[in-house]
Amino acid sequence: MAKAKKRKVAPGDVASNRYASYRFELLEKLECGIALQGTEVKALRDGGAQLKDGYALIRDGELFLHNVHIPPYGPAARANHEPERDRRLLAHRRQIDKLAAQVKEKGLTLVPTRIYFSDGRAKVEIAVAKGKDQFDKRQSIKERESKRDMDRALREVRR
After folding, report:
1. How far is the C-alpha of 132 from the C-alpha of 24, rounded, in Å?
2. d(CA 16, CA 6)
3. What's the pLDDT at 148?
4. Which of 7-16, 95-104, 123-132 bottoms out in mean pLDDT, i.e. has the lowest?
5. What is the pLDDT of residue 56?
6. In this structure, how many other beta carbons lie within 10 angstroms of the beta carbon of residue 152?
7. How far is CA 99 from CA 32, 58, 63, 79, 129, in A?
8. Which of 39, 67, 84, 130 is the most buried (most CB within 10 A)?
9. Pairing of strands 24-34, 13-16
């Protein structure tokens, strides 16, 4: 039996961080390019990238992606990339300055939500996020379950 593929947020996604919306309240999203090495692009096309523990930082006026795992590309045995290296994100200066001002606020962070290809170029969507308290997590679970129950009831009525 074939192994089930992980669900993605949108069709065409290489990797998605569905856990981010559970752990954080996503306030604002931004699309950025990624500065990649050649084998990283091929490995992304094969899939298997992981965003779960990833985050973005602004260092020396530049945006960097940390703790994102892009697996080594199999056929490139010797000339492979380091799987967990820091990757530079490509954004306009005004966007980076705006993000820096938002992150200086207490409790806000930059979280990658998905990696995808747009016109042949790898893009990452990062979100300005605020950490949820345990109460907020329980509240979002309740809302999700109540929505599921309502949908189920509506389906039963339509039959």
Report:
1. 5
2. 9
3. 95
4. 7-16
5. 92
6. 10
7. 12, 8, 9, 35, 11
8. 39
9. unpaired
Q: What is the DSSP string of the chain?
A: -PPPPPP-SSTTEEEE-TTHHHHEEEEEEEEEEE---HHHHHHHHH---B-TT-EEEEETTEEEEES-B-PPPTT-SSSPPPTT--EEEE--HHHHHHHHHHHTSTTEEEEEEEEEEETTEEEEEEEEEEEPPHHHHHHHHHHHHHHHHHHHHHHHHH-
Pick the CATH number of 13-132 from 2.40.280.10, 2.30.110.10, 1.10.472.90, 2.40.160.20: 2.40.280.10
pLDDT at 82 > cutoff 70? yes
d(CA 89, CA 65): 7
Domains in the chain: boundaries: 13-132
Residue entry with tokens 């039996």 = 1
